Amino acid sequence: MQKIINPSPSHTSQSSHSFVLTRDEGEIIQLLRQYDQISRTDIARMTGWSRAKISLEMDLLIKKGLVKEMGEGISEGGRKPRLLSINDGLGFLVGVDIGATSIDLALSDVRGKILHRKSEPADVRESPDLVLGRCCELICEMLAAQSAHPDKILGIGVGVPGPVEFSKGMLVAPPLMPLWERYPIRDFFRKTFRSAFVVVDNDVNIMALAELREGDGRGLDHFIFIKIGTGIGCGIVSNGKIHRGADGSAGDIGHICVDKNGPVCRCGNLGCLEAVTAGPAIAEYAANAARDGSSSILAKKMENNGGKLSTEDVGAAMREGDRKALEIIQYSGRIIGETLASLVNFFNPSYIFFGGGVTNLGNQLLSSIRQAVLNRSLPLATRHLVIDYSSMGPDAGVIGAICLAKDHLFIVVN
Amino acid sequence: MQKIINPSPSHTSQSSHSFVLTRDEGEIIQLLRQYDQISRTDIARMTGWSRAKISLEMDLLIKKGLVKEMGEGISEGGRKPRLLSINDGLGFLVGVDIGATSIDLALSDVRGKILHRKSEPADVRESPDLVLGRCCELICEMLAAQSAHPDKILGIGVGVPGPVEFSKGMLVAPPLMPLWERYPIRDFFRKTFRSAFVVVDNDVNIMALAELREGDGRGLDHFIFIKIGTGIGCGIVSNGKIHRGADGSAGDIGHICVDKNGPVCRCGNLGCLEAVTAGPAIAEYAANAARDGSSSILAKKMENNGGKLSTEDVGAAMREGDRKALEIIQYSGRIIGETLASLVNFFNPSYIFFGGGVTNLGNQLLSSIRQAVLNRSLPLATRHLVIDYSSMGPDAGVIGAICLAKDHLFIVVN
Question: Which residues contact B175 (CB under 8 A, 6 or more apart)?
Answer without folding.
Answer: B162, B231, B266, B267
